[in-house]
Amino acid sequence: MIHHTVAVELGERAYDIVIGSDVLSRAGGLIKPLLKTPRAIIVTDSNVAPLHLEPLTASLDQAGIRHDAIVLPAGEGTKSFDHLAGLMDRILELGLERKDMLIALGGGVIGDLTGFAASIALRGVDFIQIPTTLLAQVDSSVGGKTGINVKAGKNLIGAFHQPRLVLADMAVLDTLPRRELLAGYAEVVKYGAIDSPDFFQWLESHGADLVDGSRAARAEAVRYSCEAKAAIVAQDEKEGGVRALLNLGHTFGHALESVCGYGDLLLHGEAVSIGMVMAFDLSVQMGLCPADDAARLRRHLASVGLYTDPNHVPGVAWDPLDLMDRMKTDKKVADGKLTFILAKGLGKAYITQDVTREQLQLSVAEAISA
User: Among 1.20.1090.10, 3.30.300.30, 1.10.510.10, 1.10.1060.10, what is the CATH number of 178-369?
Assistant: First the structure.
C-alpha cells in the first residue's frame, strides 16, 4: 500500500494531503473527524460519477455520514457563472447548513467550482478535495485557489478558500484517458523546471513509467509536487510574492486557452506545456537561460507526447498581437505591466516585469512560426 501524508502548514487553516492507492475506500473514516455534523454534499461531474461516486458514498455510509450528490456536466464550460448559480440553488435546496461539508469529487473544474461555492455559500462553509485527475492532485486541489472563468479570462472571479483535507488516490488515475494524464504531467514537470533540477532529472528517468501506469512513480511524483506546492503556499498563501512562481508557463498558456475557448481543443495542461517552452525560449532570447536547458525541457515534454509549440494545436490561426492582448487580462498584471515567470536555467525560475513589448512580440511570433 502506497501511503504518504503531506502537511500544508497554514496555522488554523492547516490541512493534510493524503496520498495512497486505497484512499477513496477509506474516505469516510478520514473525513469523519473533520465534520461538525455527520452530513456532506458531494459535487461531481458526469464523467466521474459513474466511476467513483459509488465507492465514495459506500465509504461515507460505513462511517455514518449522511450525504447527497450533485452531478454537473463535465468540461471546462462548467466553470461559469451560470453553473455556479445553478450549483448554489441546488446546494441550498438540499438544506445546506453552516456546519455541513461540501466534497469536491473530480478534476480541476469541479474542485475550483465547488471550492468557490463553499467560499460564498452561507458566507463560507468547509469543503474537502478528492481530486480524480493528475493535474488536480498535483496542482489545483492544493493551495485554496477557487474560481470560475469569464469572458475576459480564466479564473478571474474567485476566492482563496482552503480545503480541510485533500485525498489523492492513485487508483483513480487508472481510469484517466492518456491525454488527460499527460495534461496533468505538464504540471508535474513544472515543479522541476521551477526550482528542482534533481526532480526534473528524476522525471527524465521515470516520467515514461508514470505515464504508462506505474502507481509507485505516480505516488512519488504527486508527493514531491504536493510538498513543493505546500512549501510555497505556506510562505505566500495569497500570491503576494513567491507563489507566483507556480504560474510558470501560465501567462502564455492562459492566452492560448482563451483563443481556443477553454474546451477540448486545448486542455489546460497542454497549454501549460506550450507556455513553459515559450517562457524558456523567451528567457533564451533575452540572454538569461542556456539554450541547452530550453531544448532539454522541450525534448522531455515531447518525449511523453505533450505539445511544445502552438502549432501542435490543430486548426488554429494564431495571431501574435491577439495573444499579447489576451495576456493583458492576466491576474498577474500589476501597474499595467505583465508579470512573467522566466528562467535562468532548469530549476532556476524567477519573477520579473522586465520584458519589453518588443521582446514579447518577437518571442511569440517565433513560437507561432516554429
Answer: 1.20.1090.10
Domain limits, the chain: 3-175, 178-369
Q: Which of 280, 268, 342, 266 is nearest to 311 (CA)?
A: 266
d(CA 76, CA 91): 20
CA distance 109 to 51: 17
Q: Domain 3-175 classified CATH 3.40.50.1970?
A: yes
Catalytic residue among 145, 223, 300, 331: 145
Active-site hit among 220, 239, 257, 270? 239
Q: Which three cell numbers stand for residue 151?
A: 469572458
pTM above 0.90, yes or no: yes
Q: List, for residues 333-352, the tens digit of each pLDDT value.
A: 666 788 999 999 999 999 99
Residue 115 · residue 146 · CB < 8 Å: yes
Residue 123 annotated to the active site: yes
CA–CA distance, 50 with 9 (Å, rounded to integer): 34
For the stretch 246-288, pLDDT in tens is 999 999 999 999 999 888 999 999 999 999 999 999 999 999 9
CA distance 109 to 74: 8
